[in-house]
Amino acid sequence: RDASQRPNKYRFPKGFHRGIELFGQERQRLEENGYRETIHRLGLIIVEGFNDVIHLDSLQVPAMGICSNLLSDEQVAKIARLAGEVRGKVRLMLDCDTEGDEGAKDAAWKLLQAGLKVRPLWSRSMHGGKFAGRQPESLSGDEWSFIVAAATTAPDDSK
After folding, report:
1. Between β-strands 63-65 and 117-120, what pairing exists: parallel, antiparallel or unpaired?
2. Which of 61, 91, 97, 105 could form a disulfide with 56 if both were Cys (CB 3.0 to 4.6 A apart)?
3. What is d(CA 120, CA 101) in angstroms, rounded to the nearest whole number?
4. pLDDT of 9-45, one tens digit each?
5. Which residues pair with 18 in a beta bridge?
C-alpha cells in the first residue's frame, strides 16, 4: 500500500496525553443514571481504545480506555483513585487477542499491587473461547448481556 491509501492516524486533542490520561475518565460518569448502576455492580471497566469506549457507551456501558494494551503508572494511579469510589473494583476488558491477554495480565498485576479488586470480563479462553479475536467495539447488546450475566454469577463477585 502506498502512503496515499493508508488511513490517517488519529490525533488526540491538544492536552490529551496518551499513557497519562484515560479516554472517558470524566468523574461525573460515576454519577450518571444507568452508568452508576453498572459501575457499582461491576466496577470500573477498562478497555484498550477510544473506539471501544464509544461503542460500549452506545450500549449504555461506561468504560475507560487506556489507548494502548499496557497501563502506565499514571493510569494506575487514576484508576485506583476512581475505583476507590466503587469499593476498589476494576474489570479488565482489553482486546480478546494475544496482545490483549498479555496486557491484561500486566494491568491486573499493577492494579492488584495498588490494592484493587481486579477481574477480567473476558479473555481468549473465557466463555469457551466465544470471543477470541474480538474487540469490545464489536459487541452486540446481547453479547454484552451474556458477559455481564457470567461476571455477576461468578463466585465472590458480590463482595
Report:
1. unpaired
2. 61
3. 10
4. 555 556 555 566 787 766 566 677 777 788 888 999 9
5. 21
Cα separation, 41 vs 87, in Å, equals: 10
Specify the 3-state DSSP secondary structure of 59. coil
Query: What distance in Å separates the CA atoms of residue 13 and residue 113, rounded to the nearest whole number?
Result: 31
Measured between alpha carbons, how far is 27 from 13 in angstroms, rounded to an integer?
19
* Phi, psi for 118 (deg, rounded to 5): -120, 135
Q: Give dist(CA 82, CA 24) in Å, integer.
A: 12
Interacting residues of 117 by C-beta distance below 8 A, sequence separation 6+: 43, 87, 88, 89, 90, 159
C-alpha cell at 70: 499496557
